[in-house]
Amino acid sequence: MYKICLPSSKYRHIPKIKLLSQTILSILIYVELLFGNSVIAKQRPKKNELDFQEVLKENIQYPPMVDKCPLRIVGGQKVDINEVPYQIVIQTYLIRNAYWILVCGGSIVTQRHVVTAAHCFPRRLWNRKTYRVLAGTGKLGSTGQSKEVQKYPTIKRKILSCFRHKYYNEEEFKHDFAVLTLDSPVNFTENVQAIPMLQPSHGIQLQINGLCVVSGFGVYTNYKTSKSLRIVCVPIVSTSVCIKHYYNYLQNHQFCAGTQGKDSCWGDSGGPITYKGYLVGVVSYGAAQCGWSPSVYTRISSYTSGENVPFVANRCVTSAIYNLLYINNILLFFVYNLFSKHVVTF
């Protein structure tokens, strides 16, 4: 009655259960409402709208980060969090407050806002209380807890609201862009900083073969996610070359980057790709086997041009049914990888 749904047999995305019948999904939600601990009304965020222009006004005041790629070319290297202090981790738990697993990455853009990918959060079966955001950490333990002993402690925040682009289309990968509002502001330190999103006023254009920094805790070898934060420098790929890999999937609000052996991968979704110190993209999707083809990124400048970007709040239900489906999804994901070709990537 369910299957692992990758964007196609050739493309990778965050794995998720795809129910064949919307009726079954409706029944599951109805049962959850009858027997769960709370109802949708208690879990759903307030019906406030996200004013993305206000986010941009605050974000533009932050200075660009140091561009890492001209300093050294890396094929996947561990780094300290103070080298990419805008990187955050989105986690959910399998065992309440005991075993946390990686969901996606993201980028701090203000003290209260994080930019990530819309596909990191299902449209319906999602409970904000099962998620958290970690900032200021470059190492994760086997249970998903931060393992760093550092000057500044890891910052943990709950998600107050999740806003995805109104026209996000998970089947065609359109507008894979979301903004999270944290339950309280983060205090900036050398390990926690906001990164400016690329805006037209910066006068910077993405150049073919220009080097971008991708960072995250995603899969890097043997289908294992990294316990340490890693970065890799990847070249921007022309649209004509990218279309050869992704055909009609590629949209004008996306761009490609990567080369053989240097790529983003599973678990890096939603994370940052930067160019000349600015946030220029969000990790969206790529080939099922990482490191063989360039990956696709949501182009930030498509949403910072001054036009009103429409966002809608994500709907939420209680966690019992969702967690059951999520665990099944993880099991099926590893079964799929067991029979997939071994590839070593960043």
Automatic annotation (TrEMBL):
Molecular function, one GO term: toxin activity
Main location: secreted
Residues annotated as transmembrane: 20-40, 320-339
GO biological processes: proteolysis
GO cellular component, as recorded: extracellular region
Record localization: Secreted, Extracellular space
Annotated Gene3D superfamilies: Trypsin-like serine proteases
Role this protein plays: Fibrinolytic activity; shows preferential cleavage of Arg-Gly bonds in all three fibrinogen chains. Contact with the caterpillars causes severe bleeding, due the anticoagulant effect of the protein.
UniProt-recorded name of the protein: Peptidase S1 domain-containing protein
Native species: Spodoptera exigua (Beet armyworm)
High-level lineage: Eukaryota, Metazoa, Ecdysozoa, Arthropoda, Hexapoda
